[in-house]
User: What shape does this take?
Amino acid sequence: MARLTVDQWRTLAFRGLHQFVSERGGAVVWPEVEAHLAESDWLHRRLDRSFPAHWRIDPHHLTWARRAHEEVGQLERDAAVLNGREVVAWIDSQASDRRRKTEVERLAASKRRAYRSYLGWTTAELCGDIAEAVVSATVQSLAGRIVWPDPQPVGQVRELQGFEVPGGPLDAAGHWAIDPADPSVGWVPFAIEVKNIRRTVYPRSREMWDLLAKVGHFPDVVPILVTRRVHWTSFRFLKDVGALAYMGERQWFSPAIDADDFDRITRRFGFADAIRIADPTRPAALSKRSLLSASIARDRARPRH
Amino acid sequence: MIAARDRWAETAPICRQYARLREDLSGEDRSQLWEQFVEDLEEAGVEPSGWASPEHA
Assistant: This one.
């Protein structure tokens, strides 16, 4: 694949964002933009067939493009508070005539309401706890062979090596057998933080430092981040500091959420990897790849730009 | 996993210090702290493999 320069990616992001907002009727929510331009083959399908189908625009380039569109007056932040929470849509500010402007504003309001419903599902009970259960089940499925899990409840790992974890509990912990066939070879302690979020995690993301701040107090315990998407720079960063990441490529939700509402809203925004999981305690939920082997495989993350 | 453990033993104190200081900073101050963090890692023998650029902030 041809390597593009940063400026070329930014130019592509600027052009792609303009096209995307236009084809979506002039109003979008930001995760909808990222779901299509950063995570799907939209560039190839909708912008230019000559682009390889695997091309994606990284979120930081899209953020740059959004700011650039704002500066030239092509895109406008349109926020409203819904059920006590601010929800932002981005609208085509060049919708000139009154009728068109009204249409765009109505669409923005509709998308904000739909996105607010999605945000209402991102609670601990319907979202965070579900991912923790998925990860815990996977760690437990490896118990006694590769991993010796810590007995503290999932999401409530308040102590490591006999000392309190500063800054709040971790989600899982245990010991990894250096040689599963010979326990006398030794163990590597690890601790896991699960972030069941849509944002792509970068080296400077808050979610990254939630983990490293806690485990930084335990130099013998390898930190492991489990989340939906990790930028390649984060894999490189974690490898360089001696930590690991597992990119699940799924955002897990509770089956208690109404199936029709869930499908309608996630489909509308292109959240193809948001799934209601019937039984989060099934180890197979994470994937056939084991958590730890997948973490190590991701060390081979290659930069695109 | 063994390589990670050995490396983390060296970098955990540096990460812990950065994590503690970043809480009180924002904007340009936090960017400067990040640069200092990268320098501290380099002094500890870490060669940043393409992740330290301001572009990815």
